[in-house]
Each structure stands twice: as structure tokens, then as C-alpha cells.
């Protein structure tokens, strides 16, 4: 279990940190520009998503390139499609509920309830992450052998 926890932290923590920065920056900028809690919540949600999934995709592409190169194969558009499919399986169900309902609602209400915008946004992000990671990690573990094997011939 220690090995898996380390693997999950290595996989998710850098993306989480980048996502937190993007979330706070986008939500803060949009709130300052528009004075709209709804717009700020949506901007924070989507900026965090772009940063999070962008970094994970870049990591996955790098790992797949390395695995294929070691076997003497090129990284192709088909391999890139396999990277995208693996991410979709890993995060699909968790992401839909998270991005469309849970995270925006928490990012809208928690700053109001706490009376502090940045603290509310950060707490909302952390609470939403709990409901996000349980199905995401389960899907990741179930898909590792089948969707993340890049050693096969082209």
C-alpha cells in the first residue's frame, strides 16, 4: 500500500499544486474584474482543470514516449489517442460530476459562507478533491495494465 500511495502522490500532487495556483489566480482575477461569484467559481473550476489535466497529459505523453523509445517504437498519434483514452477512463465519471456540479457549487457558496474569498475558494477546491479522487484512483488502478501499456508494437 505504501508503494501505491507514493505512486499516487507522484502522479497527482504536482498537478494538484499547479491546479490550486491556476484556480486561485483565475477565480481572483475574474472576481476582481466582474464582481460575479458565479463567474469566479466557473473560471476557477475551468482554469484548475486545464492546468491539472494539461500537466497529467504531458506526464503521460513523456512516460509513453520513453516506454516506446526503449522498445524501438515511435510515439504516434495512435499512442497519443491511447494517452487520451486512458485519462478519459481514469477521470471521466469523476470529472463530469466534479466540474459541472460539485466544484462550482462549493466555489460559489464557501467564500460567501466563510466571508473570505481566497480561503473559501481553497477550501472548496480541497473538499471537491475528496469526492473527485475516490473514483479517479479506483479507475486509475483498474486501467493501469490495460490502457497504460505502451510497449506493444505500433
TrEMBL record:
Respond yes or no to whether keyword Transmembrane helix is given for this record: yes
UniProtKB keywords: Membrane, Transmembrane, Transmembrane helix
Q: Where are the transmembrane segments?
A: 42-63, 114-138
Task: Name the chain's protein.
Answer: Uncharacterized protein
Tree of life domain: Bacteria
Amino acid at each position: 500500500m505504501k508503494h501505491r500511495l507514493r505512486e499516487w502522490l507522484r502522479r497527482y500532487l504536482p498537478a494538484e499544486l499547479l491546479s490550486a495556483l491556476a484556480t486561485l489566480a483565475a477565480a481572483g482575477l475574474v472576481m476582481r474584474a466582474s464582481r460575479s461569484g458565479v463567474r469566479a467559481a466557473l473560471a476557477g473550476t475551468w482554469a484548475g482543470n486545464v492546468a491539472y489535466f494539461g500537466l497529467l497529459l504531458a506526464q503521460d505523453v513523456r512516460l509513453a514516449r520513453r516506454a516506446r523509445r526503449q522498445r524501438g517504437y515511435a510515439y504516434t498519434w495512435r499512442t497519443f489517442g491511447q494517452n487520451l483514452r486512458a485519462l478519459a477512463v481514469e477521470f471521466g465519471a469523476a470529472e463530469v460530476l466534479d466540474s459541472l456540479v460539485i466544484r462550482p457549487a462549493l466555489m460559489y457558496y464557501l467564500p460567501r459562507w466563510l466571508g473570505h474569498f481566497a480561503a473559501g475558494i481553497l477550501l472548496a477546491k480541497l473538499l471537491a478533491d475528496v469526492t473527485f479522487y475516490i473514483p479517479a484512483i479506483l479507475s486509475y488502478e483498474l486501467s493501469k495494465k490495460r490502457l497504460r501499456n505502451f510497449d506493444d508494437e505500433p
